[in-house]
């Protein structure tokens, strides 16, 4: 299951209007680490169906979004809840780290 791609409009809608608890992975098509992290997130996604959203932003297509969060590199996973930034992790990240952060965001 691939992650839903966001652009500026859908990003605003999901993060701020819906205030959905979610993560957004900022990545690039030709990034080697992204090619490992994104599939790992795609595998995790069904486990959180209906309670935590998984989204993706291509930093080359949506430069304004990545600049907004002062991201230094890709992949960067940014966590949100109630329209608030809840933290971010970057680089080669383990599944366990992502799950811990999701639990933290959801207050579990």
Automatic annotation (TrEMBL):
Gene Ontology MF: a single term: protein-disulfide reductase activity
Keywords assigned by UniProt, alphabetized: Redox-active center
InterPro entries: Thioredoxin-like_sf, Thioredoxin_domain
Gene Ontology cellular-component annotations: cytoplasm
Domain of life: Bacteria
Chain ranges of the Thioredoxin domain: 1-107
Alphabetical list of Gene3D superfamilies matching this protein: Glutaredoxin
Entry annotated with the keyword Flavoprotein: no
Protein family (similarity comment): Belongs to the thioredoxin family.
Protein name (database record): Thioredoxin family protein
């Amino acid at each position: 299951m691939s992650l839903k791609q966001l652009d500026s409009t859908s990003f605003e809608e999901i993060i701020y209007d819906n205030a959905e608890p979610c993560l957004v992975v900022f990545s690039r098509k030709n990034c080697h680490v992204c090619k490992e992290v994104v599939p790992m997130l795609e595998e995790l996604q069904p486990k959180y169906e209906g309670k935590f959203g998984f989204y993706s932003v291509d930093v080359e297509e949506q430069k304004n979004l990545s600049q907004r969060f002062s991201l230094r590199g890709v992949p960067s996973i940014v966590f949100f809840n109630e329209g608030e930034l809840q933290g971010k992790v970057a680089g080669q990240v383990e599944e366990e780290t992502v799950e811990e952060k999701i639990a933290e965001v959801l207050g579990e």
